[in-house]
Write a structure and sequence with these properties.
- The chain has 255 residues and is α/β, with parallel strands linked by helices.
- It has a single domain, classed as Rossmann fold (3-Layer(aba) Sandwich).
- Helices cover 42% and strands 18% of the residues.
- The longest helix is centred in the middle third of the chain and has 18 residues.
Length: 255
């Protein structure tokens, strides 16, 4: 099993990237699980026809700890297993703690053992890499971290913080930073800027996603690009990225 975390600043396109990569891998016959770690619980909507799934925390609020696995794991497009950690009631509680609770629930219910995914993708908000948001890299869930960024200053600033956080845990045998994904925003000299930034943090750009209106058009239909426009150059870009990420990812060590 390969365990991948996709981090990035809020709004940078990490959920779009995660969902399209998940779909591209599942199209090849791989069993894929995508776990959204954003309190908004919207990571997997492009895999479920735009429909929200019941988050782990919502299910716990409704049923207590007596949660059934089938309540919190939804099969989406191409058979991708969709999970949303969810978040606390607005203004009450800690979103990071919600992620910890969700992960502990999946472990308790033996989700990985029962579904036996070939690839697990954690989609994680990276504006603040602390508490529960650091759990995928801190507690050994993910083996490889890919950071989505653009050439915008705040996006690269967040990417730098994420890379530093990963590096701080590297000595403990946890996740490594496997590379940056450039999600283009039409910034002047964007590729050169991001490649230079990657060099500065001793990383590399492993994929480039062009800016294209097909992404929004697909998401308006509640679909990924690879499902809505399978013959498009954008679908090819996501499929190529999925191949690269799979090649660069390490298999998880046996528990």
């Amino acid at each position: 099993m390969k365990r991948i975390a996709i981090y990035g600043k809020g709004g940078i396109g990490k959920s779009t990237t995660a969902s399209n990569v998940a779909a591209a891998l599942a199209m090849r016959g791989l069993a894929v699980m995508q776990i959204g770690c954003d309190p908004k619980a919207d990571s997997t909507r492009a895999l479920t026809g735009g429909k929200p799934v019941t988050s782990v925390l919502d299910s716990i609020r409704k049923n207590g700890m007596d949660v059934a696995l089938e309540e919190i794991v939804t099969k989406g497009s191409f058979g991708v297993l969709c999970v949303e950690a969810g978040g606390p009631t607005p203004g009450v509680g800690c979103a990071g703690r919600g992620i910890i609770t969700a992960f502990e629930t999946l472990e308790r219910l033996d989700a990985y053992g029962i579904y036996r995914p070939d690839v697990v993708i954690y989609d994680v908000l990276g504006d603040v890499v602390c508490g529960g948001f650091a759990m995928p890299i801190r507690d050994g869930y993910a083996r490889d971290v890919f950071i989505v960024t653009s050439g915008e200053k705040m996006s690269m600033y967040a990417a730098g913080n994420i890379a530093l956080a990963v590096d701080n845990f590297k000595a403990r045998g946890y996740a490594r930073c496997a590379g940056l994904i450039l999600n283009c925003r039409d910034v002047e000299n964007e590729r050169e800027l991001v490649e230079s930034f990657a060099d500065s943090i001793e990383s590399r750009v492993i994929g480039v996603i062009p800016r294209d209106g097909l992404v929004q058009e697909a998401e308006n239909r509640g679909l990924t690009v690879v499902e809505a426009f399978p013959e498009s150059s954008m679908a090819k870009a996501y499929e190529d990225l999925a191949s690269t990420m799979l090649e660069l990812s390490r298999e998880a060590e046996d528990d």
